[in-house]
Design brief:
Length: 592
């Protein structure tokens, strides 16, 4: 495989030589700024062999570098070994930026190529400024992988389906009117949506074009007079066509977006900074561009009453699947026939038995012992290891249901664990509980709460490199903005109706990883003379393994929270279980 990677890089270098450019930058995104992308746009993965979901690859005439974050350091080191591509660890003070690295490697006046279709406006503008300080020029070229990637997967053309109003809660016509009203308030003539989850939410449609994310490849142009969906004609069924026509949505070919933007007649158009640069170039030739985050980001993040009700129901069914899995796994491991992949498959079976299940919300992370330290580990036939009745299993998984999306992590003791593992497990749990208990005033953003989850680890000289929480879509992408809980500043406030995860962790390289995660809902707490205050309500319903807790490290308040949570889990799930399962759950949720 390493030789194959080298040959692919050589083919890109031949393209670069032909175009007279000295380096080429390949991001992990697609024309829709997706975190998870269809295979057609997985050029960075194809060229480098690195399979993580985040990373930027840079190839010069003689060298290569790949920038990725701490979730993937271990994975990237292993997969890039022998390819001629050096790992550049993002977030470390010793790691140069892409512009700095290129400034060191190239002569002044060199040209850096990008494909404008898969690079956002903000990326291009920021990178251009950075490169200019090194006397380097960024230029947009055609997609090199059209010519060098043999047997490249095609752009997906899977069917689309309508999300019934009983799950969506608000008709798509009402959503479009709301968007148009917001545009009129700001004297904006039009809005281009390119993010696939925004389009799916607005139209109450779902698809299967992206692995684990129920979205479909398209663009949606909304003006004050009309809405136009740009989509492959092959996706259109009679039912879908009728639905779109009934909702006064014009249908055009996916490929027509460039020409329509180039001939746009309105005074201005709003594009998100995450819109791809090719569309920006087309629109800027015809009208004034307003660069601003789409209003749909905020509308979608605050769930309506129907969506919230559906999420609660999805969490119950997901909790049933998790209880059945947790009841099964320890005995199965004792028998000695299970591995990371086999238990992932078993968990899928339990979820697949649940009503309204449409698939997993991301590839299951089942990391046993040392693999648990790889934050976004995914077992493959080459890395799969057997589970033994000892040590820790980190299991991060989720499901897509017609009425909600789930995301949960549990760290499971499969047998005897060390004292250090117990201490680390309890530090994680204490931070998890502290964040779960937060009460905060209106206007608070996730960055202001992040320390609650880290405080006990920090006192022990421990930290983790990923964010503490992310938004979760409603039968949409498992990662949803604009709100997050993380150390770096994320200004979006946490508002009632938003879903957010709580997932602190500790990772000891080569030994084990620990993470506990619930999805939570922001709800109103009380109103005082100082204003409105909010809190978190747990959505996830699943026992937290008690075997690894150092009870002496826990305060009475923390123990009470855990006991109250477990009481709720038993109350909500027990009516849905068999008598034998209820007995198991009663023990798993008994008071600490």
């Amino acid at each position: 495989m390493k030789d194959t990677i080298k040959e692919r890089i050589a083919s890109l270098r031949r393209f670069m030589q032909k175009k007279q450019i000295n380096a080429f930058i390949i991001p992990s995104t697609d024309p829709h700024a997706g975190e998870y992308v269809p295979e057609h746009w997985e050029a960075r993965k194809w060229l480098s062999g690195f399979t993580g979901s985040a990373g930027t690859l840079v190839i010069t005439e003689k060298e290569g570098g790949l920038w990725t974050d701490s979730r993937y350091f271990l994975q990237a080191e292993e997969q890039l070994n022998g390819t001629g591509i050096d790992l550049q660890k993002e977030g470390l003070s010793s790691t140069p930026s892409i512009a700095e690295w290129l400034g060191e490697k190239l002569q002044a006046g060199s040209k850096i190529g990008i494909d404008g279709w898969v690079n956002s406006i903000s990326t291009v503008e920021n990178l251009s400024k950075q490169l200019l300080t090194h006397q380097l020029t960024l230029i947009s070229t055609e997609d090199p992988f059209t010519s060098i990637w043999e047997n490249r997967p095609s752009i997906p053309e899977n069917p689309i389906f309508i999300l019934p109003l009983e799950y969506a809660g608000v008709p798509c016509q009402h959503k479009i009117l709301q968007i148009q009203e917001l545009l009129q308030q700001k004297h904006t003539e039009g809005l281009l949506l390119s993010a696939l989850d925004e389009i799916a939410w607005t139209l109450n449609l779902r698809g299967n074009d992206v692995h684990c994310n129920p979205v479909f490849v398209s663009y949606l142009l909304i003006t004050n007079r009309q809405a136009t969906l740009y989509i492959s004609p092959k996706k259109l069924t009679d039912e879908l066509t009728e639905y779109l026509q009934q909702n006064n949505i014009i249908i055009k070919d996916y490929k027509d977006i460039i020409s329509d933007l180039s001939n746009y007649k309105e005074k201005n158009i709003q594009l998100s900074p995450s819109t791809n640069y090719a569309l920006y170039q087309a629109a800027s030739s015809a009208t004034h561009i307003l660069q601003e985050v789409s209003p749909v980001v905020y509308l979608k993040a605050v769930k309506n009453d129907t969506e919230i009700s559906g999420i609660h129901q999805a969490m119950k069914r997901d909790g049933v699947a998790m209880v059945r899995f947790l009841r099964w796994i320890k005995e199965a491991v004792q028998q000695g026939s299970e591995s990371e992949i086999s238990i992932s498959n078993k968990l899928y079976e339990f979820r697949n038995e649940q009503a309204l299940f449409k698939g997993i919300s991301f590839d299951t992370i089942a990391g046993y012992q040392q693999h648990g330290a790889i934050v976004h580990y995914e077992a493959t036939p080459d890395t799969d290891i057997p589970l033994k009745p000892e040590g820790l299993l980190l299991l991060d998984s989720g499901g897509q249901y017609m009425d909600g999306t789930t995301d949960i992590t549990r760290t499971i003791a499969l047998g005897a664990v060390s004292q250090q593992q117990k201490i680390d497990y309890t530090l994680v749990l204490k931070g998890f509980i502290a964040l779960s208990q937060a009460v905060f005033p209106h206007g608070t953003c996730g960055t202001q709460l992040d320390v609650l989850a880290r405080q006990y680890m920090w006192k022990a000289g421990i930290n983790y490199g990923h964010g503490t929480g992310h938004g979760v879509g409603h039968f949409l992408n498992v990662h949803e903005g604009p709100h997050q809980i993380r150390m770096n500043h994320m200004p979006s406030p946490l508002l009632p109706g938003m879903t957010i995860t709580n997932e602190p962790g500790i990772y000891r390289s080569g030994e084990y990883g620990i993470r506990t995660e619930n999805t939570m809902l922001v709800v109103k707490d009380n109103e005082t003379s100082f204003g409105a205050f909010y809190r978190f309500e747990p959505l996830t319903l699943c026992p937290i393994d008690k075997e690894t807790i150092c009870k002496e490290m826990m305060t009475g308040d923390e123990i009470q929270w855990l006991n109250n949570y477990h009481t709720r889990v038993y109350k909500e799930l027990s009516p849905l279980l068999s008598p034998e399962e209820r007995i198991w759950l009663e023990n798993a949720t008994s008071a600490l």
